Amino acid sequence: METFSDPALEQSLAALARLFKLASYYHDGHPALQQPLRQAIDLMRQLLQRQPEGLLLKVRRQGFEREGQLLRCGSTLPADLATRLFVHRVTSLIVLDDLTERQLLLLVRLLLMEPAQMTAAGGLQHQLEQHRVTGLLLNQFDLTTAARYRQQLRERQQAQGETAADSGFADGSANQAGNQAAPLPADLSRQLRLLQKLIDEDSPTSRQNFARQHALLLQAVQSLLTSHQRDQILPALQQWDFWCHNDQTGPFFRQHCLDALNRLSQLGLVNFLLDLVSHDKRQRPLTLRLIGLLGEQAGPLLWQRLIEEQDPQIRRLLSQLLSQRITEIQPLLLRHLHDERWFVVRNALVLLAESRDVRLTDDLAAQLYHSDERVVREAIRALARIRQPAACQALLRYLDTPACPQAPMALRALGSQNDPAALKRLLWQINQRDPLLRELVCCRSAIEALGEQADPAARASLQRIAGHRPWLHRNRYRQLRLAAIEALTGLRDAAVDQQLQQLSHDADRAVAEAARQVLQKPGAGR
User: Where does the record place the region Disordered (predicted)?
Assistant: First the structure.
């Protein structure tokens, strides 16, 4: 058989094969999958720029064929990918212009299943259809047939959305609307103007007409949301946002708008809004307002997106939205504290810390002994925010464990605890005899924590450290002196100011400069 070489195609298939191997080790949303997934989708899109109509590849046992020629590769990765597709009875692969990262990762996950298991589930193409994937088509032998097949998929998805819209939307008015044609995208603005006019009239007749016309609008938006024309629903979303937040909108009309938004959330509205923000930052306020209107079903959707999301800005937006729903998603977050993925546990800890609920102390304290140090650090931060005796005792128990790799951070967290037990532990840490400075880092952290507490009981110990000039390890001990001088800022009195005046002329320039800076701040001597 004749062969051909295409470096861009080879790189794209190799990237997909690498993603397949990584996905067999890591769960969705793991940081190790972010860069390979982004690289694979970027390479695919570069290929589609050369072939806007789509990319058609026939699958052989040990390679890919295009136009009767076998792709010649310098790497075995494309061949491994072809073999995996072959055992799943895939004879051709078509990549189209609406391919997304989510669809590509879904294909990889499905390929990881055993062929017999996949066959019992209906086959690979059936699973892709169930997940509304239209950017990847299997076992289609020409692009024209594939385009018709994709159009049929979209029509079926739209029909499913229309059926959902017609089922009991407004006490029988939806059934009446189902017998009419949904408005076309070009007619959305006219439909919105008509609905606004009915809202302004606010009569029994206008309410009945509004329910019927609003069902038509919802039907059209659902059809667009499940197709590649999703961007055309933005005017309708903006109008719903206006109606829901306008004081002049009656309760009847506002409730219909809220019901519509909650129904759309089950068809991907949340993901659409987040994708919209990722491409246009100006839509962030709209996204915040609309998602804030959704019911409890939006919480799990936002949480799942946070697990999978790779964009740092979208992750911050998701964290903000979830923190506003912390009460309703708290049971969900507590369940995920036992997840085997460290980053999922860390995300749950970050959100649970927002509530500062003392009842969560035991759940948070259990994560102090997690196998991953990143989770331990987040658990310490969460306990530090609670600022209750129970949280303080949990940190003290952690510090008493034989293996305590995050002891410096735990000591600093005690600085936020207004508890006598925390003060006692910190004073013990800085007053113990340690001529070789084996506990230098922990001692410095304890001094910083005492400075945060600003308890007068620590003044004498901090003054002793600030004025001590050891012969052994003088350069290393300087770190403790500087930390003690800074900690004395909130404990200044006449005696402290006198000592700082003396230290401002110290032979150690760093110590003298630190003392002068503290003296320049407003304090007891002023």
Answer: 154-181
